[in-house]
Specification:
By secondary structure, the protein is α/β, with parallel strands linked by helices. The protein has 5 domains: about 30 residues; about 140 residues, ADC-like domains (N-terminal domain of TfIIb, Single Sheet), CATH 2.20.25.90; about 140 residues, Rossmann fold; about 170 residues, 3-Layer(aba) Sandwich (Dimethylsulfoxide Reductase, domain 2), CATH 3.40.228.10; about 140 residues, Barwin-like endoglucanases, CATH 2.40.40.20. It is built from 26 helices and 29 strands. A 7-stranded mixed beta sheet has the order 5-4-17-16-15-6-7, with helices on both faces. A 6-stranded mixed beta barrel has the order 22-26-23-25-24-27.
Length: about 725
Amino acid sequence: MSSRVNRRSFLKILGLGGVGSGLAGCDMPSTVTLEEGKEDVVSYLMPEEYVIPGVGVWYASACLQCAAGCGVHGRVREGRPLKLEGNPEASVNGGKLCMMGQAALQGHYNPDRVTKPMIREGGKLREASWEETWKLINGKLGKDAAVTADRVAWFTGNISGHQAVLVKAHLQSLGSKRHYVHEVVNVETWQAVNRDMLGEAMPRLRMDKANVILSLGADFLGAWLSPVHFSREYAKFRTGKSRGTLIQVESKMSLTGGSADRWLPIKPGTEGLLVLAIANLLLNKHHLSDKGVLASLRKQIDDINLNNVARTTGVVGDRIQRMAAVLAERGPSLVLAGPQMDYASTAATMALNIILGNVGKTIESAGEAQLSDLAMVTGGSADLLRFANAAQSKRLDAVFFWGSNPAFSAPAALKMQDALAAVPLKIVLTQFMDETAELADVVIPLASALEDWGTHMGIYPGDGHQLVLQQPLMEKLYDQTVGFGDFLLSLLKERRAQEFGKFADYYGYLRNVFEAMPASMKNSRSGEQFWNASLQSGVLSMKSSAGSLKLNIPDVVISKAGQDSSSSLSLVATARLGLWDGRHANLPWLQEAPDQISKVVWDSWAEIHPTTAEKLNIKQGDYLQVASAGGEVKVKAYLFKGVHPDVVAIPLGQGHESYGRYASKVGVNPLNILNLNSDAKSGELALNGTLVSVSKTGDSDKVVKMGNDGSQAGRRMVVTISADVLRRTEGV
């Protein structure tokens, strides 16, 4: 008996067989039938005119993964963003993008996103309608509510552009000036010193003009200021005529330290003392001019004893002399101070730049941007301390939270949960249920950065001041999420309807703003032409006023004593490119990306020097109890020569109690056990100022990392011998 099957029937059978095969390979219950497994495939019936199915279209937007303010191009296909790359027209990143920027897609498509508003009822958060949510907010803070001036606050991360303008306007409508800005990874001390000594918080650092860079813990390739920009600048520094020399001095090897010509470990808190020693050699041995250094600072420099400095810092004396010689002989140079240094030590570092004649050569004025009111509002840990004090003193009735997670980033000694409990109304704007959102009274579900409008200015000006435009790359995935700008506008419509009621949405507000831009920025283009051209390029370059740096060396006192750690180790909590301060711990791409130095993945670890480990009888993988006056954490040991022997280093980013399935219960959070030591001048917490004791728990486990441990079946893969032994074996 023959059976004939035409082509169409054959394809139907083949298609059904494909479905059956797919179902058989899936983890589905046996009750699922082939009919239930079928899908309706609908063609792209009404595509936009410029959309070709299967062909991607690129749109310009902004990266919000850190404060650098990079411009991006997003490839969109059939209405879905699939790939991000750097925008070549953005002066900060020049077409490049780091791993954090690439991973923004996983935040957008993350299954743990908050998709509906939530309000607290009976002690628990429940989903609510927008009508209920606005009724609650406006009942407390609306135009008819009795609001006491200065008892309402915003608590944010770094913020810029028109979002910062609207936050300020909202606070003004409430009669409040309370805007707390908190970032764990910050450059607040560096900015304060620059402002006091040079007259500008963020001058341009010309690595391309330097022959030598001395970095005191500034991880400019990893987690300092603007890593993509400085990676590009570092390439110019390395490929110049002299192939610049990088000297990195820090307590724990960073990504920048791993790329340095000379890496020197230093005892935490003694960087200022090393700077004085170098200045002493420059002035008294190499006879450089003191450039108007205050007599009090000059006396501290002259009183330095090199042997004492070597003993206190752990940096050998001849290496200090060699550093001074290289700086004196191979100028121009550039000296950078990392975030772990206090105000006095950072000021001494800038004084070193002045002595070396770097100001005006490798440190230039960036001028003031044409739209300076859109510049980034930055913060550090000082505002975290101020907020905790105000909340615990019950001076706050309501607080809006955006872009920061103080319940996670605050040391346990600060008792942040008690502080938040003392605030009657906590409104958290977020994409994910992080630790602060779990304690909120109202949770606002935010659209992702790839679904929203905005304007941004980076923390560092790059090669010129620019406003980066953020435009949606697709329609919202969840219809009840709201754009940050739209939420701000709704708040302002309630309080200042006459001024803001005319804007239908945040997009309309931005269009109006661009219509009102100065004619000099439009270059004779109409409002529509100017808007479209700005969206297409993704950036708006601004003229900068001609600036000049004004030298002023303050009267500072550098401590000549290191921490007494005869029986303790210094805790060094370090940020890294990837998880950053923990904000990206919910992105699997970044969790599985190996640490740039240790190569460890999906975990926390405590880096400890092999000589210290030997004294304490610690082996790789042993679980350690790391305890401070503020608390303790249990973490695996990782033996590593890239830390000072008096240091135990635990990277930031892990230890979330909430924040979704990929972040929760992974590793430990070293911020929890920091002591509340703050700099008297800047108010910033001393990240490296906590002494800890280390003890074995008796447990151990394998440290999971890429590349294993350099051995194969217990045998060393590469055996090294000395040059003398080689010569003898070769008969030389």
